[in-house]
Specification:
Length: 143
């Protein structure tokens, strides 16, 4: 059930961003990466685990850095960060013993992250394929 809800919610969030126009702002998806990465920190705080808080904060910092660099340089890095967080969910238990994480969370977060990253990649490729090819300098001069 967690997988289905994660995929469905990823679809809803991406569609919501596009329909409302929020996704036109280049900060929408990097912000999504930062929010997704912050949940494990929240779970560590809720559990009162200082060790988990430190580990989760370090991991979150890496994703925040990736999201910011992606915002500045390439939306593909943002997509990669979102997908990478999904992969992180698979290995989370071996990286951090965070007692605040609900049992269903890694499956939900994995499916949300990978689902959203996949959908964003597909939309980006589709947009690139449908965009008119740039005219060469030679063509522009001859016109």
């Amino acid at each position: 059930m967690a997988y289905a809800v994660g995929i469905a919610l990823a679809f809803i969030v991406v569609c919501f961003g596009r329909v409302t126009g929020l996704a036109r702002d280049q900060a929408f998806y990097p912000t999504l990466v930062i929010i997704v990465a912050s949940y494990y920190v929240l779970f560590a705080l809720m559990a009162g685990s200082p060790r988990a808080l430190v580990v989760e904060s370090i991991v979150m910092s890496a994703f925040v850095l990736g999201a910011v660099i992606g915002f500045k340089r390439s939306p593909w890095l943002v997509i990669a960060c979102l997908g990478a967080h999904g992969v992180f969910d698979v290995f989370h238990d071996s990286i951090s013993a965070n007692p605040g994480v609900p049992a269903w969370w890694p499956a939900f977060c994995l499916s949300f992250d990978v689902g959203a990253a996949g959908l964003l990649a597909w939309l980006s490729i589709r947009a690139q394929l449908s965009a008119p090819a740039p005219r060469s300098e030679i063509e522009v001069r001859s016109v």
